[in-house]
Here is the input.
Amino acid sequence: MDVGLIGDVVLQNLRVQTPSLSLRVRLYLALRQAILDGGIRPGTRLPPSRRLAQELALGRNTVLKAYDQLMIEGYLEGRVGDGTYVCETLALGSVGSARGGKPAPAERPAELLSRRGTELSRLTGSSRVQHGAFMPGIPDVEHFPFQVWRRLLGKYIQPRQSHLLQYAVGGYGPLRAALAEYLRSSRMVSCDPRQILIFNGTHQALDLCARMLCDTGDRVWMEEPGYWGVRNVLRAAGLETVPIPLDDKGIAPTPDDWLDPPKLVFVSPSSQYPTGTVLALERRLELLEQARRHKAWIIEDDYDNELRYHGNPVASMFGLANAGRVIYLGTFSKVMFPGLRIAYLVVPPQLVDGFVVGNTELYREGRLTDQAALAEFIAEGHFSTHIKRMRGIYRERRDTLQDALEGRLGGAISRSGGHAGIHLLYHFNAAVDDARIAEQTLARGVVLRPLSVYYQRPELARPGINLGYASVPVPRIGPAVEVLTRVVEGQLKGG
Amino acid sequence: MDVGLIGDVVLQNLRVQTPSLSLRVRLYLALRQAILDGGIRPGTRLPPSRRLAQELALGRNTVLKAYDQLMIEGYLEGRVGDGTYVCETLALGSVGSARGGKPAPAERPAELLSRRGTELSRLTGSSRVQHGAFMPGIPDVEHFPFQVWRRLLGKYIQPRQSHLLQYAVGGYGPLRAALAEYLRSSRMVSCDPRQILIFNGTHQALDLCARMLCDTGDRVWMEEPGYWGVRNVLRAAGLETVPIPLDDKGIAPTPDDWLDPPKLVFVSPSSQYPTGTVLALERRLELLEQARRHKAWIIEDDYDNELRYHGNPVASMFGLANAGRVIYLGTFSKVMFPGLRIAYLVVPPQLVDGFVVGNTELYREGRLTDQAALAEFIAEGHFSTHIKRMRGIYRERRDTLQDALEGRLGGAISRSGGHAGIHLLYHFNAAVDDARIAEQTLARGVVLRPLSVYYQRPELARPGINLGYASVPVPRIGPAVEVLTRVVEGQLKGG
Here is the structure.
């Protein structure tokens, strides 16, 4: 190829490069593309840098640097006394043709992803709409004490605290100590701080439990209905999730169920999500006894316990099962803010060592500055002040929603639970399609979750709606209830 | 039981309660314990609150509140006109005996944990000692621009930025845009910001790839030797990791290997960890072609590319494989700080939707304030300033270590790679036990990693040592090299 022909090929490729890149980089990319797509073939002798520079009206240095880079990367080779060649040995294959502009034929997701990946990619648990009336699971963050949090974080982002920027093992000591004290005084959980492990959210904590305690194909019992997020995490860890229906005393496994015992039972005893049912003492004792007998583990999700509006809180199962088979799960997502991504497990002493190693190896830990700020936030009393304040705000929003909705739809719906948390769950007294109601309200700007999505066997689901009120200021509740009421009434009339 | 006997049992239990708890809580716990361990049996009628209060010399209100709580939780029941009874129906079983102080017989870890949990709990990849000369993988954090970082974080922890405290989907837009620009200009990675997904560290990013792209039992090829962390994550996701030996051109699969193609290939082409080998162009092209042919995926770990001491950086494989089967993996752990826990994937367009859903469902995302601060840190130029500065500091430490060690042990060792990153790898020219050398230096206060731990088949390992110098100030390098030299010389003499 003569210099003119090579110059043409390169110029053509130069035109399509991103203009903001340096000339050297653009020339490198243009030459590389010409080699990869066969415009300049293996074995071709390139013109000397000075000649190509003239041809392209570029500085010689620019060409030299592009040649150098291509030499380093193996596209070109220098032959002593004989100039620069495109390597003979380049096996271009598909790369060349891909660069030639012909896109590969589109593959369908099922061809691209694994079976479990395909299943994961089809999940729709976490809605794309994450705000507004009545998105469940979203706390109010407008009233968060930003200034205090900024001050505490700033205190630990300091040269003399530089060790907090490194990797961590097992979490920040003072946070674990503050948590141990908090759990002891408010949740009847008595533990050594070393039993507390810090995670980036409850999903990660559950994932560790699933992998440390269960192998692929092991069975996990879950409350039906229950939190879809847990189901997804456990399934993605290869476990079979078995739905165990609830009655008014909570999860109600039959003697037959116990003939085929699970490896793990996931429960939310203090306030079942989403029904708000409190697990009765006899059920708790039975679960503990059967878990001991069958060497099963119980994960106690103590969701919502901090935000209780009436009635005394019920003591934790962990506190009942001294050194037993209960793992306690807590999170700061609802009482601090979701984006914080700090959750924790309290594990029995015999699991501590294994879990610490597994946690470190699987996830590598860090984020000690956040943990230090949180420890001080708790120790200084900001945590309990903030919870108390939010409880008042949430209670007002909750009461407003309850009064408005029950005032309008009283005969058609029945409230379930509602003594704690940041949502209200209503069953419909007649047969309606709750998913259709959710679609119709969404089209009118009101988000809610149909109860059927919380079921593994939606065909057995009792229709209902889950309404999150925590992030909805009082004046916005009435209008949203009006929208919801009209949709529900339309459905009840067979619309 | 008469009131005196009940009073005695309760008093005895009261004495062992944590004194810092309120009297009401201690009395509740003492009564509960008495019921659970059979000190007060089901069906027992309790004395009226006034009588028990007298007996225990407590306020009547304290007793009433403890009774109330036990009633709520189902331990006690009121019979109309007939006082308060311990529930007849309580099936105490094991809980009672566990409370009675007899600890359950200790189970061995293998009985407690799953098979994969047991494997995880035995891993020792991430050392318990995470600092000092010559711990690999630990950057210097003393020189981090704390003030700038504090200012940027503080800017986003504000009421008007409260939306950053909520859950996230797909990561913070401006960070993904800043990364796209950075990757384009410095790594020849051309992508749309939507192709970039943000993770809590590389382990989580790898975990998502493993689950979205592979099913249990699928094969992954890894460089041998290679980073143990990847191996652990992929194995914990149920994959079979197949070690493919390196030669001086990088990972070197044979034609026979390709008869049994993998689902995923994990490579670090720009600077293989830990050997520093650069993957040759012909190998890159061959990998890309075979991946296309066998519908395999390539994960390109671009570890260390920012910290390069001589030679031009080699362009990424992602940039070569337009819309192909390469997934690019990057992290801020070494160039910012490990505890930050922010890493990212750049995925081909056809994987974006599935990965975003999978990521959200599996891990729930948040931490937008950190991501916003990082985006601005990059956009304001602090990132490149910091890297330039650290490159100078690291180069001096690297050169000091290299000169000292090669001056003392020159004939016994051979350096591998070392053009980039924060570690130096040396092979031994004679047969020695590198694990034993690591043990002996550790006993003398010097941490290092034997090369054998990076092998899946340690029996085929060439002995060597991996030395991290990044967090070791220059004056400390000489003394640590002396310790190391004496240990190695002792070993070479057959000690």
Notes: Confidence is low (pLDDT under 50) at residues 96-103 of chain B.
